[in-house]
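=== RUN LOG ===
request id: a7f3
mode: sequence -> structure
chains: 1
length: 258
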Amino acid sequence: MAPALLGGAWCLARGSFRLAPFLLSLAGVVLAEFLSLVSADYSTYIAGRRGRSPPSPQLPGSPVIPQRLVPARLLPLVLAALAVMAAVVLALLLARTGGLVLLVLVPAVAAGALYALQPLPVASLATAVVPPLITAGTALAVSGRWEWGALAIGVPGALSATAVICTYRTDIGPRLRGRTRAIGILAVHGAALATLPVLVAAAILPPACLLAVVPPAALLLPLARLLPRSSGDPVAATAMGVFLHAVLHVALAVTLAA
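=== RESULT ===
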């Protein structure tokens, strides 16, 4: 949801914020996330029945719906219900944007398909494009017009997401381990923060947004302490990376809207 908050802040800063379409966008993001998570859980269930390894590392919180509440074999019913609700939200967004939402939806679906099918481990990196697409899509839904600037301010989130994916997908670059891998991941997080001055210099973001560097930068040190051990157990480093990713979006949204 953090990238959607950034899209709403973009509109708020430009005087085009509307609450109803913003809430509709949030609903769409939440439904899409649940569709993705439940689909991954069902894929894991099917892989287990066929005696194969799970298609992706299993982190705490998997499955998203405990089997004591909904047995894994019934997850297609949950997926169907989520799909119906998502279709309603999509229809409303299409009516508001005149089909421009497809500029966001088509690449997001393609990235999701690559993640689900996993033709190669690096296919997971395709989902790094989703945060800026959510930011731009939310701005589109709220303002009713496409703005490239709203996509550009999502670039830091894309870089941060890339670092997070490389943290938990230890099968991406498996020869890079320990300190070498940690330095690479920290460098990508650093690149995400370094894009903020570039966006300010390009007059896409106001100078006040430089303050958004501070909160996520403060998390780099604890992340650096966790990363060297992430090759064997990526859970703690992944959780810290996700937190940094969220803090980056929220800090940017707050400084942009202020």
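=== NOTES ===
Confidence is low (pLDDT under 50) at residues 55-60.
The chain has eleven helices and no strands.
=== END ===
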